[in-house]
Amino acid sequence: MIDHHAALIYTMVLVSAADREMSDDELEHIGNVVSHWPVFHDFDRDKLSTYAQDCAELLRGENGLDTAIETIRAALPHKLIETAYALACDIAAADGFASQEELRLLEMLRHELAVGRLEAAAIERATRARQMTL
């Protein structure tokens, strides 16, 4: 079983890869998140690429997406469910727009992680506010 850091990184990688194209903005944002979000304060950054590769390998397997989401769900403590969804939303918005594939994956994560409607709406609105430009 993976740890909570890996689960959060898997979440970000899943969203970034959802449209089959991991943009430079998304990859840079993943690095920034790992460097600055408090949940990663005790994370060894040298493991980031290994966890990302492990997630990609999992996705290549049979039922890869379902397996990856189940792996994430099993590894996340309840306390970090909303954090995972917030990370997913941030990565989806990192390149300025969310593709239909990314939106569908967010819906799947919301359902599988049991993020409540109000909580999801608040997280999505906060993401939109953070990404807003003139």
TrEMBL record:
A Pfam family per the record: TerB
Gene3D superfamilies from the UniProt entry: TerB-like
Species whose genome carries this gene: Rhodovibrio salinarum
Top-level taxon: Bacteria
Domain Co-chaperone DjlA N-terminal: 6-122
Name the UniProt record assigns to this protein: Co-chaperone DjlA N-terminal domain-containing protein
